[in-house]
Amino acid sequence: MKRLQINTVLVPNGPxxxxxxxxxxxxxxxxxxxxxxxxxxxxxxxxxxNTVNQWVTNGLLVIGADPSPDYIRRPDSEIPVAxxxxxxxxxxxxQPLVTGENADLILDEGLRWELLTARAQKVGLTxxxxxxxxxxxxxxxxxxxxxLPAYSKSGGATKTRQSTEGRKRGRxxxxxxxxHDLGATGVNVTAxxxxxxxxxxxxxxxxxxxxxxxxxxxxxxxxxxSHELVDGEVRKTPYPSNQLIQVPAYRYWATKxxxxxxxxxxxxxxxxxxxxxxxxxxxARDTTIGPADIFEIDxxxxxxxxxxxxxxxxxxxxxxxxFVVDRRSTMIVGVHVGLTGPSWNAARMALHCAFSDKQRxxxxxxxxxxxxxxxxxxxxxxxxxxxxxxxSRHAQRSLQHLLNIxxxxxxxxxxxxxxxxxSKFATVNEAVNWVPGAWKARALEHDARNDLDMRWDAALTLxxxxxxxxxxxxxxxxxxxxxxxxxxxxxxxxLKPYRRDIYLWGLENESGERARHADPAGLYRCLLPSRRCPxxxxxxxxxxxxxxxxxxxxxxxxxxARRGRRSVTVHYxxxxxxxxxxxxxxxxx
Length: 589
Hints:
The protein is an alpha+beta fold. 38% of the residues lie in helices and 17% in strands. The chain contains 22 helices and 19 strands. It has a five-stranded antiparallel beta sheet, covered by helices on one side. It has a five-stranded mixed beta sheet with strand order 12-11-8-13-14, with helices on both faces. A five-stranded antiparallel beta sheet has the order 17-16-15-18-19. Strand 11 and strand 12 (332-338) form a beta hairpin. Helix 7 packs across helix 8 and helix 7 (191-206) packs across helix 9 (247-257). The protein is elongated and about 130 Å long. The N and C termini lie far apart (110 Å).
């Protein structure tokens, strides 16, 4: 018989007194101290040496191989530095407990917790954690390398566990542990099950908004049920419980499948995802270097009806209102009210207002302002708009080629990409809800009067509405406080929290001096569309209309055209066909 030594592993053989393998930790007189190696580990306990020898002699216990992992026997030269550092930290924590005079005392159940408590307080660890470290030390051979990190046994975060044949993953069910139902082992989730889980999440949870419990019930009913014919009707009966995926497992895999958001993107669509669910970091104004850097432009249909300026009994419909907003200061820098739907023809009028002198613009509508009341007339670096405005060759030529302004065209159905200008429509619409012809805000008033048609109250013309909107824009820029837009430097400078003041301060301290177009007429021509037109003996022909030069001898020009026709590039205004501008080949204007 082989002599029993310290760290010998005793393995049960047949009807043994132990169900699991045990390690001999120490000798104490005529007894041996044994420690169970199986999980969960037990407590060290005393067994008479003669009794253990008798068990080994009778073959109830055999001396087995040491089950310690291989990495414990590696030389220090092959152990990573990080692993050795961790080992040394844990070894320093328990070394006074397992060496010297405490080596035998820690094995005494009566003194163990007293020693652990005192040591845990000294090293700054919890008693429970220190005891688990001590159990690892006993289990793996009572050597310092037993405290090396057992990363080889780690499953790996976010990695799918691979189940062995015939073994159920996860925590055993309570009815199985207590012995009430030995057949309730359950099943592992397979690749086929994952397809059904993903399908149920798409159909029921994401598209129909059902809870995970209801989605689970629908999945069981459609994919884990047997079909039986009862009284002429097909009834679905779920499989037995021990053959079904349980609700906790379903919730676990549902959370895991939806964790990277790919399932939500697939079901809800890219547009809805980007509009409602995507993450939005920072604020819009943080993307600019200062005022007059990025302008946002958008249009909306006004919530009121207008009448004709030539005959007030004639309705001309609802206006299309354009706003151009500076992203940094949120100041409205341009406005246009017309009857043309969203297009470059209407957007260029709003941009011309944004880039030009506001005193001249307001004077066209009978509104007199000072130069400092609406000071913006700088050219920006970038214009953010929808497809309707800038997705045309005329817009790209005018902005990018002639004015050197970049364009950013937002995807369809994604207004949040220019939320600064979108929020202005609600602000201004609320301010002009009182005007005659407003049909949404005054619906209750019309119902009380039993009006047959709310359009009967319309009284404002296009010019009068523009005057009202100019007043609202001036109030918005000069009188509505926005303290949230103030930065630390602005507060230290004593700046007032109004958009106009923020705009002017930003031009001086953030953006620097911005470019302005020196020639108002040239700026207007830059924004006009262009085309090639033939020069004939009758004049410059555009859509059946003939134009003659404003000055000079046009007869000589026509005589030359009679000998040989040629074409020239002209800038034309679709809103006024009284004249056109012939392009200068050198400047492009």
